[in-house]
Amino acid sequence: MAWVESLQKAIDYIEDHLLDDMTIEQIALQANSSQFHFHRTFSILTDMTVGEYIRRRRLTLAAQELIRTNEKIIDLALKYGYDSPEAFSKAFRRQHGISPTEARKKMGKLKSYNRLVIQVSLKGAEPMQYKIVERESFQVVGVKESFSCENGENLIGIPKMWEKVHQEGIVDTLVKVNDGTLKGILGVCDPLSNRVINYWVATASESEGSNGLENLTIPASKWSVFEVHGPMPDAMQNAWKKIVSEWFPSSGYAHAGTPDLEVYTDDNPSSPDCYSEIWIPVK
Question: What angle, 0 to 180 degrees and rounded to 10, lies between the N-to-C axes of helices 50-68 and 35-46?
Fold first, then answer.
């Protein structure tokens, strides 16, 4: 359960420094994790980004202070990280549905986001189908885009990238060059640094990149390969959540830090019988 304790340590660090300037890198360090893997784990478990959690918690505390004290709104704005009363009021209304002035006059309801406590269920009521395999390095070809992990930009940009490659016929090209080393279209997440990832839409192929395609070598790894059954994208998202919240804490494995893969077959993505896989390099 050290993994759970590390994650909770990072959340406690956020709470202890909620009024300070802090980076995702500093927070992830508390969990002995890279920025990318911490941010993704946090988002999967909580359905919000680290930045959203910090913003919601600050505005929750600001609202409490607003109705309990006579502190000036401009001073509260600065205290909770806003450059001006206008920016504070806009963010406050977005979360609470009323302005700071209305809140002080008790003219509406406030929305409270409480301090997170990570509780992981290890009951395993629904079994997960997976296997551990070892593979030599292999090559993929495809297209890539770089995304920042700051403020969940990668979570917004990657779905748009998939729409683009479908519209431009790139997926059809990838199907044609797949050599069967690993069948299917791949979503490859390749961390470049703690802040930036390359995301690839690709396929396994030993051919040299052409038609605007580039090459990437996937290193030799021990892989945990999970079966995913059901319509996209919900089935894939639910599988990731179970892996992060149930499998990793009890498995004794850790992410190896190299690219992981989502493998999409030619099944109908809307079908309840759609089959896909998640490949995670582990150590």
Answer: 60
As a whole number of angstroms, the distance between CA 202 and CA 58 comes to 40
Question: The domain at 130-281 falls in which architecture?
Answer: Alpha-Beta Barrel (3.20)
Neighbours of 263 (CB within 10 A): 21
CA neighbor of 97 nearest in space, from 82, 87, 107: 107
For residue 119, count other CB atoms closer than 10 A to its CB: 8
Alpha helices in 31-169 (DSSP H): 35-46, 50-68, 73-79, 85-96, 100-104, 153-167
Q: What are the backbone dihedrals phi and psi of residue 197, each rounded to the nearest 5 degrees, phi first?
A: -125, 150
* The CATH homologous superfamily of the domain defined by 2-104: Homeodomain-like (1.10.10.60)
Compute the mean pLDDT over every residue in the chain, rounded to the nearest whole number: 89
Strand order in the sheet with 130-135: 130-135, 221-229, 275-281, 260-264, 185-191, 196-204, 138-148, 214-218
pLDDT, residue 143, reads 96
Q: What is the pLDDT of residues 244-265, one digit of tens each?
A: 888 888 788 888 989 999 999 9
pLDDT of residue 245: 81
Question: Structure tokens of 213?
Answer: 């395609």
Residue 28's CB is within 10 A of a number of other CB atoms, namely 24
- What are the domain boundaries of the chain? 2-104, 130-281
Q: What is the pTM of this model?
A: 0.80
